[in-house]
Structure formats: C-alpha cells, structure tokens
Design goal:
The chain is built from five helices and ten strands; from the N terminus they run αββββαβαβαββββα. With 204 residues, the chain is of the alpha+beta class. GO terms for molecular function: metal ion binding.
Length: 204
C-alpha cells in the first residue's frame, strides 16, 4: 500500500465519521477543534497499544493519561523520513515551551529485528530526552500496526534491507482517545497547532 493509498483510506474513514456525528453544540458552535491534520475523532481503530519500552517496561496508552500523545511508526536505520519526523517532533516540543511536558512523543519500531532497546534509547536521546521508543516481537509489532491501519514492509537492499512504512503521526487527546492523523508533509507549526488544540480542548 502506498502512502497515498494510506491517506485516502484514512480520509475516507474520517469522512464517514463526520457524516455520522453532530459537530455542533446546542448553540450552533463547533463542539470539537478544527485540526490541520485529518480529524479521525471517534475512529474504530488506533485505540491503543501494549508494547515494551527501551527500559523493558510494558507501556500502554493509559500510562500517559492527562497528556497528549503523538505516536509514529518508524525504524532507526531509516535514512530520511524518520529523522525528519523526529526532528519535527523536537521542534514541536520547543514551540510548546513550558507546556512541552504535556506532550509525550512515542516511536514504535517496525524493525524489531535490528532495533534493540539500547539502540532505540540512543536514537531517541539524539532528538529529545523525553521521547519514548517502543518495541516487541514481530507478532506484537504486526498487530499494533494493523490496529493503527499502518503499513510496513521489509524491502531487500543488496545484502541488507530497509523498511517501507506509513509516515503518519497519530495524536491522542488527554483522555487517551484517537483524534488526529498528521501527514508527513505538514509543518512543525501545523503539528503544534493540533497539539495545542487538544491541550486546550474542554473535557466533554
């Protein structure tokens, strides 16, 4: 599945959700924020995860209750897309200033064969000390990607291989509900705007 097909799939799902939901408050005002990314509020996928962090601790979405979570699938040897995504996430943290502690960035490896806990720890530290990387066995990673409708595939490159994968970033609100899928082409300002919209959104 290409990146374009993944986006069309998500957009179609979001359109279906919007058609079935009342987006207006009793006073006629929007009841939910307007996002720069794809609004997938109420989606029946991307509900959570249960994987192991680089310290050997099992992590679930409930661990980050009260914070906005930005989740991204990638791998350490990714030549450009993943470093760009993580550099952008670090820029978002900088833009948030004193509110940066209200955002947790989570990186899920799609290459558990090579991405050891030690390597993941070093890789995250290169971008921001608060970034967390998660791993698991091949079956756990495959199930998590399926749960998020995220695509990845091993691609042989001579004597080694690389990974083709979905380059979306997913945002969960403070209550642990999936809300937004942000495209790789979007800017740090777009990402920051959607994070702030979720941080400032009233609890329904």
């Amino acid at each position: 599945m290409s990146r374009r097909q993944s986006l069309l799939w998500l957009a179609a799902g979001a359109a279906g959700l919007l058609s079935g939901c009342d987006r207006l408050s009793p006073g006629g005002q929007p009841a939910t924020p307007s996002f720069k990314g794809i609004d997938i509020t109420g989606a029946d996928y991307a509900r959570g995860f249960s994987l192991t962090d680089f310290n050997g601790q099992t992590r679930t979405l409930a661990d980050f209750q009260g914070r906005v979570v930005m989740l991204y699938f990638g791998f350490v040897q990714c030549p450009d897309v993943c470093p760009t995504a993580l550099t952008r996430a670090a820029a978002v943290m900088e833009r948030l200033g004193p509110r940066a502690g209200d955002l947790q960035v989570v990186f899920v490896t799609v290459d558990p064969e090579r991405d050891t806990p030690e390597l993941l720890r070093e890789y995250m530290a290169a971008f921001h000390p608060s970034f967390l990387a998660l791993t698991g066995n091949a079956e756990q990673i495959a199930q998590t990607a399926k749960d998020f409708r995220a695509f990845y595939k091993k691609v042989p490159t001579g004597s080694s291989y690389t990974m083709d994968h979905t380059a979306l970033s997913y945002l969960f609100d403070r209550q642990g509900r999936i809300r937004v899928a942000l495209r790789h082409e979007q800017t740090a300002d777009d990402y920051t705007a959607d994070v702030l919209a979720l941080l400032d959104a009233p609890v329904p």
